[in-house]
Design goal:
With 363 residues, this protein is α/β, with parallel strands linked by helices. It is built from ten helices and 16 strands.
């Protein structure tokens, strides 16, 4: 199924519901929002605090939240709603051909919006491929796995002569202040993108490491992105390791469980290291340029390092129900380990590897 979403006009960034016209202001508000992570570790699970059981049946335990004034489910409850199911208050996909373990809800969309600010600062620019002149003159751009569309919207404002298209399996695209030269489609790459061959001059994707299995990367993802790219056009793969340097007892416990979960889904947590081989094996590209960035986390990376660390921790926290069940510990125990991970990162100064591969499709 493919669903199209239209665009709007004008606009400025929104951070936590507040208008923020400047990057520094965005970063400051983002840091204020996340710096008290330890105190707010139950941000996404407050409904489980001070709960009272109200119904039991078929192994499902429902609770009434005295803080939220409503009902929620324990980690053993899955509420299936169409193509999604709800676990631990978070929404997940039920797509049969997708092994992606992450969430698909507005909380995740906000995490992605805020991290876009960090990425732009760390890499100093929005893209590395040599397509600036094309963008100024007017070309067609596709962003696969676009999330809420933050990157696309910023690019569309910067290059009004070009047309920008975003696709994602999660329909949480921006709906306000979207430029007219932006369109969104709800679509799953593994089902085939809803575009003709050789449609786009520039194709971009970011952080899809856990979205595809090793085999899907090798046989579907790269080939499909190449298919919709024009001869002589560019594809930019922006990937990261699904974990950072493991230092500390809590970090080791969490990442050991995380790697085991990925292995069960046949996902390569360091696909960025294998992408050069996969790209070369297609024989579709005349040029493959590689750039690597080592992102210091915690205090050694300054405010941007702290924000990158929080991005990772919040992502892992969204999987706490999966980790809880896999590790055989309580949800609170998972949160305690995440708190310790933060402290260990502050002491050990780990690094997080990110990669960009800019590929020119054969003429």
């Amino acid at each position: 199924m493919t669903t199209e979403y239209g665009g709007g006009v004008n606009g400025i960034f929104m951070v936590n519901g507040a208008v923020s016209p400047a990057e520094d202001t965005q970063a400051e508000r983002y840091y204020i929002f996340i710096k008290n992570f330890t105190k707010a570790r139950h941000l996404f699970s407050v409904a489980f605090d001070n709960h009272v059981p109200i119904k039991r049946g078929r192994g499902v335990q429902l609770y009434h939240s005295t803080k939220m004034g409503g009902c929620c489910a324990s980690r053993f409850f899955e509420n299936k709603i169409g193509r999604f199911h709800i676990v631990d208050g978070r929404r997940y996909h039920t797509l049969k051909n997708s092994k992606y373990p992450g969430t698909a809800d507005e909380i995740e969309a906000e995490r992605l919006r805020q991290h876009d600010i960090v990425v732009k600062h760390l890499w100093k620019e929005s893209f590395h491929s040599p397509v600036k002149n094309n963008l100024k003159a007017g070309c067609k751009v596709l962003d696969v796995g676009c999330g809420p569309g933050t990157w696309l919207i910023e690019m569309a404002r910067q290059y009004p002569e070009s047309n920008f298209t975003g696709v994602d399996i999660s329909p949480f695209f921006e709906t306000e202040n979207v430029p007219e030269n932006v369109k969104f489609f709800e679509s799953n790459l593994l089902d085939g993108l809803p575009f003709q061959d050789s449609t786009f001059d520039f194709v971009h994707q970011r952080f899809l490491t856990a979205a595809f299995t090793q085999v899907q990367w090798e046989t579907q993802a790269v080939q499909e992105l190449s298919r919709v790219t024009k001869p002589g056009g560019w594809i930019e793969f922006f990937e990261c390791d699904a974990l950072y340097e493991v230092k500390g007892v809590a970090t080791t416990k969490i990442f050991t469980a995380w790697l085991e979960l990925l292995k069960l889904r046949h996902i390569n947590p360091q696909i960025g290291k294998d992408l050069p081989r996969i790209l070369e094996s297609t024989n579709n590209f005349s040029v493959i340029q590689q750039t690597q960035l080592k992102v210091p986390l915690g205090f050694s990376g300054g405010e941007w390092g702290k924000m990158s660390l929080e991005f990772i921790i919040r992502g892992i926290q969204s999987l706490r129900a999966l980790l809880s069940e896999h590790m055989g510990i309580s949800l609170d125990d998972v949160c305690e380990l995440l708190d310790q991970m933060l402290k260990e990162a502050e002491i050990n100064d780990p690094n997080w590897l990110q990669y960009k591969f800019c590929c020119c499709k054969n003429p």
